[in-house]
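# step 3/5: fold
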Amino acid sequence: MTGLDRSNWPIAAAMINFPGVRRDGSRVQDDAPDAWAATLEEVRDAGFDHLDPTDSWLNVTDLEPARRREFADVVRDSGLGMVSLSTARRSVIDPADGDANLAYSHRVLDAAAELGIRTVSLGLLRQLTPEQKAALWFWTVQGPVDPDDADTWALAVSRFRELGEHAASVGVEISLEMYEDTYLGTADDSVRLVRDIDHPSVGLNPDLGNLVRLHRPVEHWQDMAEKVLPYANYWHIKNYFRTEDATTGAITTAPAPLELGVVNYRWAVAHAIEQGFRGAFLVEHYGGDGLSVSATNRDYLRRILPKRAVSADAARPTTREDRA
């Protein structure tokens, strides 16, 4: 590909709108290929050319090799491509499961390379608490918090650098997802972490929606964007309505279509491209018919992406010197 424009920029469907475990307890993981195909037909009918098989829906990494090939065949036969693979709640510094999550993350990189996927989104999200699972919107309930501890920070840096080395060896890049109360929970911490990791295969997934939806004071979205977008290499993109009552301090949020929420993505996307962003987008939406809203988000992105092609290989900062 010699250039990217609004007609060919990869925009993937998020699979968060499809549960990995159904109300009857059956798992997508155990489905026959024709059941996977039925779901992917919905994605294709919504107008998508790409998807991200997020592991909260279907854990392609832990499928047996023959089953993983079956899934790849189903995706191809559905007329879809896979530009990315996102993990959900697999923190490599989780106090209980960090070692297992690190080993899993290595397997994810190998599975992505096998499937021809070039971007993997990792993060420091931990499992939802029972109270979060019981809430209408899980982000309105306090979840786990990464410790203010230099040794744990250093562990995160070391493990992500290790994964960056593995990613480079198999032709994959890593994108670290911003998420509240983790070491990627503010713009400043996110930039600090990726700078400390200091590996050209590791960038940021600037999921601003994960932060602007919080019912607490947060940094203005534009200030966050200006800090993190130079390091972005993949983008989970979504928006929220956000109301702040200055007289009482009350803050409320709710999911919004991309063009209607508090973040002005016309500005943010243009600024990211100016800073060298050439990664794929993953359009997300929580609540209601999330797939259809994601489709409207895709169409909005198509309208605001560049009409004239930009070079597909513009570089983002890769070394400390570049980032200075």
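# step 4/5: annotate
The chain is about 35% helix and 15% strand.
# step 5/5: archive (pending)
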